[in-house]
Design brief:
The protein is mostly helical and 121 residues long. The chain has one domain (23-120): Arc Repressor Mutant, subunit A. Helices cover 69% and strands 12% of the residues. A 3-stranded antiparallel beta sheet has the order 1-3-2. A hairpin with a 2-residue loop joins β2 (81-86) and β3 (89-94). α3 (37-48) crosses α6 (97-120) and α4 crosses α5. The longest helix has 24 residues, at 97-120.
Length: 121
């Protein structure tokens, strides 16, 4: 019968294997894509509505269309957003429900932290 140390070591090795088998670089890049204030505003806006034009997004984040486009292209490259064109207008949306859930979880968690801190004060 394996002793406790052998069992713990086997567990550590299994966890290491699971972590290495996943695409850590892709996951961390996706989270870095949300680690910018403007990009998080964009993600929040897109979590609230099915899609928005680049022009609307620029207004929401109070930036130029060029800046909004830059952020949106970066987010698209990371798999956070998708787009469609209608004439000369480009509309963006979150890539899928998983991205929406991540954004909603971050927003919800932040609200819980804020409430906890207010209660501790």
């Amino acid at each position: 019968m394996p002793n406790e140390n052998e069992s713990a070591q086997a567990n550590v090795e299994w966890i290491q294997q699971q972590i290495q088998e996943r695409s850590l670089g892709i996951m961390t890049d996706m989270l870095k894509g949300l680690a910018d204030g403007k990009r998080m505003q964009i993600a929040q806006a897109l979590a609230l509505t099915p899609e928005l034009s680049v022009h609307s997004i620029a207004e929401i984040i109070e930036s130029s269309i060029a800046t909004a486009s830059h952020h949106l292209r970066y987010m698209h490259k990371l798999g956070l957003t998708k787009f469609r064109k209608e004439g000369r207008t480009v509309y963006y949306s979150l890539d899928d429900e998983h991205v929406r859930q991540v954004v909603e979880l971050v927003v919800s968690h932040q609200a819980e932290i804020k409430e906890r801190q207010e209660n501790e004060a």
